[in-house]
Structure formats: structure tokens, C-alpha cells
């Protein structure tokens, strides 16, 4: 009965989809208008999804901390029972994850990246509700995590579900998933720019206009809904800080360097504790989040500011009202509490903990700098503000996203120069020590080798011999300029391999080689192909992999490369283009997904 209902619903949706497409065609609308319409739908549902997540977090927090902890038992006993609340939440999440959806555990974003890169954007429909329920329970019960990871997963699942119901192509499915992730992050943080940039920089690794436009629309829609339902105030209200003296730049540079090291410590601690829970703790899977919750509750008993729903410590650091000793303890305790919560199998995000760690680290650094250099340093709160960006950039390896997120959650532009310097430094140091970000580290544990938004293992497995194109115009070394120009004007190709009389590759002529000669009509007619061509070009052989070919193209900044039988003989075989490689990759990725 349920299957028949689903079938009829899908059939009805496809009918109206077909009607809509025909109307758009008759109206002679732009080709991307249909995708923009879907982006509005994704943004709308994700905006309400963010509100639902807030309701669950607040509801669980009220039941445990406000109601049960004070009404059913005495306040004194209730304070001690708060140690157990994260464990209760962890046990609930463990059971839900074990029996319903294993992909919902953890911090969510790596599973979305994996779905985009290796599954064409396919995400199970149940993830939408379970991610909200699991993360709301984790955070509301006191787990040390944020809302951003789950809402990215919720938004991605909404985009994927809409794409699956309407049977869109794999490319459009990826875009819809991106619309959901941008909309979710924008709605939770009230940061539409950061949501968009995070999606194109981290999730999709695609900055093209066709991808960018629908993602922007979804983020705007979701943020507008969040403004209406939750409010439009910035996440953190802080005093206005500015660069106190140009002499502070070396201090901010040093803070970026140390922040990069701290970011790596956070990453490795999180995954080290996750390894202990997954591989060395021989207990039922559903029990482990309860153990992690109990350890988090024990830490939070002494430092209540570590609870996931509490932003007070971050506010105090930003306003410079926390002592040096306590700041140092906060950094260590927050890293451990977050690692216990998420490493054990709880569900939540890492942005908020990174902001907490960054703010306390920055305030600690600012206090110490003020002791040694009292005449040139800004208040500790200014360093706390920059410190948030430093740790976020170091953990996710994305300085642009970190810059925008700090600007949008604080609405403070005055500290932008130190923020730029420190976030870039932190990213470089973190990448130098640990090549994986806090997200790609998880994907490497999935045995996925990810780079530039692609599964490198697929690129390394398949060779170019099946995609060599022999139907490309070639010229010979003695071909004159006028003939080459005529070939260029009447051909779809923009680059021509140059061959010798015995059919050996000796160079290549591209549009950029001809452009300077177009305005020198006296010299140009006298030139031959051998005079114009670029000789020192990369070549491919049939046994080269897609990964090797793509790497050479990106290094040389060309769209195609010639193929020869061997690098010694250089007998011409054809060309391979970047477009062909991407098509082949998508085909193999789709086959891998379906298998």
C-alpha cells in the first residue's frame, strides 16, 4: 500500500513537472529558470528545517535542564544529575542511529561531501528528519556540538529528496544538494554569504555561475525565513574593535601560526578519540554515544559553559571578561568535550565548537600579548574575535569561508586586516602539518581520496586510452600563418597539434600564440607553424591515467593536451580534452554509485 502511494505521488510529480517545463519552453524563458524555481523550494523547506532544529534543541533543553532538573527533583540533586543528561541524550541518539540511519552520526558534513562526490548527490530521504532529531537531542541534552553540521545535512537531504522525486540529472542533483547546504548554514548562522561560499568552496568545489546563482537564491530564501521566525540579530554582539597599531601585525601573524597548530591538535584529538570509541571500545554501538555523553557531562559539571546550547563563554571571551587561567582550561576542556560528544557517535556540528575554541584561544593570546606589549596591543576581545576565524580556517582549510563567517556572525568589519592575515597563516600552517581538513580527514577514513571536489581514486584507476579524440585539426611544421588563421576561423578547435613530416608531434599552436600576431600584418604572413608553436608542452601517452592528464592540464592551464605513442618516439595519436576527462569521471562515478 505504501509503495503504491509513493509510486502514485512520484507519477503525479513527474506529470506536473512535465507540464511546467512545457510552459517554460513556450514562454521562451532562460534554460536555468526551472533550476532556480527548484532552488526556491529547497531554500523554503530548509529555512523551516532550521526552525524545526531550533525547536527540538530548545524543547530537549527545557525538558531536561529546566523542567526535570528543577520540578521533579530538588535543585541540589538536579545539579548532580546534569552530569547524566548528555548521557541520556547520547543513548537516545545511539539507538536512533543504530536502528534507523547510521549516516546521521558525527558532524554530518563529511557524509554530505561523500554523497556529492561519490553518489551523485543521492541522500536517503529519512536523513532530513533523523538529522534534526539526533542533533537536536545531542545539543539540547548538553552535548558539546553546534547546529551547523546537522542543518547542512538536513538541507542537503531536502535538496536531494526534491531532486530524486523529480528525477533530475546528476549535475542538477549536486546543485540542489548545494542549495540545501548553503540555505541551512545561512539560516542557522544568519550568514547567507558564508553559506554560499562554504558550499562552493567546500561542498561542491565549483565556482561557475550556473551553480552559484541557484545557491544564492536558496540562501537568501532560507535566511529570510529565519529572520521572520527566529530574528535577524547577529549571533554574537560585541564591542567594536579595531587594529590598535600597525606594530600588532607580527602578533597577529604569530597568533595565526599558533592557531594553525591548535587547529591540528583539535582535528587529531577528535579523530583519535573517535578511533578509540570505534575500534578499541568493545561495547554495542548504540551504547557508545551514552559513554561519550557521560564524559562530556562530567567535564561540563565543572565548566557549564561547555554545553552545546550555551554561548556565554564565547561572549565573555569576546568582551575580554575571562581570566587567563580559565581561558586555558576552557580550550582544553572544549576540545575534549567536543571530541567525546562527536567521537563517540553523537550528532552535531563543529563550527560552533571551533568558534568557542578560537575565541578563548584569541583572548588568551591577547591577554599574554598585553602583558608583554601593553603600549601597542588592542584589548583581548579583539584577539578573541580574530581567534575565532583563525581556528575555523585552520580546521576546515578554507580562509575565505572563515573570513565571511566571522564578519557575518559579528557584523564587525573593523578588524578585517588582522583577520585576513591570521586566517591565511593558520590555514597554511594547518595544511603543512596535516594535509586533511577536519572534513576530508573523515572522508580519508571512508577510504576516499578527495581533492578539488573529486574522488581521486576514480581518476587514478582509469586511463585515457578510451577517450582519445583523433578528429582534431592538425597542422604541419611548414603550414603558413594565413592557412593556420583560416583553419582557426572555420574550426571548432582552439588548439592545433603541430606535426613533422613523419607524423611526430613537435609542438602545439593555441589561440594565445596567434593573438599577438594578428596586429602585425607585415610579419605574420612570413611565419610558419614551426615559428609560432609552443614546443615545450606536456604530452600524454595512452597509458596515462585521468588524474595524471588532468593534473598536467591544470598545471599548463590548457583545455586539451596531445597524445603520443611514447615520450621517446612522440608519434601523434590524437588529443584528450579536460571536458572529455570530466565526462568520463562522471560516468564512472555514476556507475560506481549505482553498483
Task: Walk me through this protein's architecture.
The structure is a single chain. This protein has 595 residues and is mainly alpha-helical. The protein folds into 3 domains: 2-229, Clc chloride channel (Orthogonal Bundle), CATH 1.10.3080.10; 246-449, Clc chloride channel (Orthogonal Bundle); 456-594, Roll (CBS-domain), CATH 3.10.580.10. It is built from 25 helices and 7 strands. The protein has helices spanning 2-26, 33-72, 75-81, 85-99, 109-118, 127-140, 148-165, 170-189, 192-203, 209-229, 249-280, 288-302, 312-318, 324-343, 351-372, 380-396, 399-410, 416-433, 440-445, 456-461, 481-489, 511-514, 529-532, 546-556, 578-594, and strands at 450-451, 454-455, 475-476, 495-499, 505-510, 560-564, 572-577. A 3-stranded mixed beta sheet has the order 3-4-5. A two-stranded antiparallel sheet has the order 1-2. A two-stranded antiparallel ribbon has the order 6-7. Strand 1 (450-451) and strand 2 form a beta hairpin. Helix 16 packs across helix 17. The longest helix is centred in the N-terminal third of the chain and has 40 residues, at 33-72. 49% of the residues are buried. The model is unreliable at 445-450 and 591-595 (pLDDT under 50).
Amino acid at each position: 500500500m505504501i509503495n503504491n502511494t509513493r509510486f502514485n505521488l512520484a507519477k503525479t510529480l513527474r506529470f506536473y513537472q512535465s507540464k511546467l517545463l512545457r510552459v517554460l519552453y513556450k514562454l521562451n524563458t532562460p534554460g536555468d529558470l526551472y533550476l532556480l524555481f527548484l532552488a526556491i523550494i529547497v531554500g523554503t523547506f530548509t529555512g523551516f528545517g532550521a526552525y524545526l532544529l531550533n525547536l527540538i534543541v530548545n524543547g530537549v533543553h527545557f525538558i531536561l535542564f529546566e523542567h526535570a532538573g528543577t520540578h521533579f527533583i530538588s535543585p541540589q540533586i538536579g545539579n548532580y544529575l546534569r552530569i547524566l543528561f548528555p548521557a541520556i541524550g547520547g543513548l537516545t541518539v545511539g539507538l536512533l542511529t543504530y536502528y534507523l540511519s547510521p549516516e546521521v552520526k558525527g558532524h554530518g558534513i563529511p557524509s554530505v561531501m561523500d554523497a556529492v562526490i561519490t553518489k551523485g548527490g543521492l541522500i536517503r530521504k529519512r536523513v532530513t528528519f533523523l538529522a534534526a532529531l539526533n542533533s537536536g537531542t545531542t545539543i539540547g541534552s548538553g552535548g558539546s556540538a553546534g547546529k551547523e553540521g546537522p542543518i547542512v545535512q538536513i538541507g542537503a537531504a531536502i535538496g536531494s529528496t526534491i531532486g530524486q522525486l523529480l528525477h533530475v540529472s546528476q549535475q542538477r542533483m549536486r546543485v540542489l544538494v548545494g542549495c540545501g547546504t548553503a540555505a541551512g548554514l545561512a539560516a542557522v548562522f544568519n550568514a547567507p554569504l558564508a553559506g554560499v561560499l562554504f558550499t562552493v568552496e567546500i561542498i561542491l568545489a565549483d565556482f561557475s555561475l550556473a551553480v552559484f546563482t541557484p545557491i544564492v537564491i536558496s540562501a537568501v530564501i532560507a535566511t529570510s525565513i529565519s529572520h521572520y521566525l527566529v530574528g535577524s540579530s547577529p549571533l554574537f554582539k560585541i564591542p567594536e574593535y579595531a587594529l590598535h597599531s600597525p606594530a600588532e601585525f607580527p602578533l597577529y601573524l604569530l597568533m595565526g601560526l599558533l592557531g594553525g597548530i591548535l587547529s591540528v591538535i583539535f582535528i587529531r584529538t577528535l579523530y583519535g578519540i573517535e578511533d578509540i570509541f570505534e575500534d578499541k571500545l568493545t561495547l554495542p554501538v548504540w551504547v557508545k554515544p551514552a559513554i561519550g555523553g557521560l564524559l562530556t557531562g562530567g567535564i561540563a559539571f565543572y565548566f557549564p559553559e561547555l554545553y552545546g546550547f550555551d554561548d556565554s563563554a564565547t561572549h565573555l571571551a569576546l568582551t575580554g571578561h575571562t581570566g587567563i587561567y580559565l581561558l586555558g582550561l576552557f580550550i582544553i576542556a572544549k576540545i575534549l568535550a567536543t571530541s567525546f560528544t562527536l567521537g563517540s557517535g553523537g550528532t552535531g556540528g563543529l563550527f560552533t565548537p571551533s568558534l568557542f575554541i578560537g575565541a578563548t584561544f584569541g583572548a588568551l593570546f591577547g591577554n599574554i600579548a598585553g602583558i608583554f606589549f601593553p603600549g601597542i596591543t588592542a584589548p583581548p576581545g579583539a584577539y578573541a574575535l580574530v581567534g575565532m576565524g583563525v581556528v575555523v580556517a585552520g580546521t576546515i582549510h578554507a580562509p575565505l569561508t572563515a573570513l565571511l563567517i566571522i564578519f557575518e556572525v559579528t557584523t564587525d568589519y573593523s578588524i578585517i586586516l588582522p583577520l585576513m592575515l591570521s586566517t591565511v597563516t593558520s590555514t597554511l600552517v594547518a595544511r603543512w602539518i596535516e594535509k586533511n581538513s577536519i572534513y576530508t580527514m573523515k572522508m580519508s577514513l571512508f577510504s576516499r581520496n578527495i581533492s578539488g571536489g573529486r574522488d581521486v581514486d576514480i581518476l587514478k584507476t582509469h586511463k585515457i586510452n578510451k577517450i582519445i579524440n583523433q578528429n582534431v585539426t592538425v597542422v604541419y611544421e611548414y603550414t603558413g600563418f594565413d592557412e593556420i588563421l583560416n583553419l582557426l576561423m572555420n574550426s571548432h578547435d582552439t588548439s592545433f597539434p603541430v606535426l613533422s613530416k613523419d607524423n611526430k608531434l613537435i609542438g602545439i599552436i593555441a589561440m594565445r600564440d596567434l593573438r599577438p600576431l594578428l596586429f602585425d600584418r607585415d610579419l605574420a604572413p612570413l611565419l610558419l607553424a614551426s615559428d609560432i608553436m609552443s614546443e615545450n608542452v606536456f604530452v600524454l601517452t595512452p597509458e596515462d591515467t585521468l588524474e595524471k592528464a588532468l593534473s598536467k592540464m591544470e598545471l599548463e592551464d590548457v583545455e586539451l593536451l596531445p597524445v603520443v605513442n611514447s615520450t621517446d618516439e612522440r608519434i601523434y595519436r590524437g588529443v584528450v580534452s579536460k571536458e572529455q576527462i570530466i565526462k568520463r569521471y562522471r560516468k564512472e562515478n555514476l556507475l560506481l554509485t549505482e553498483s
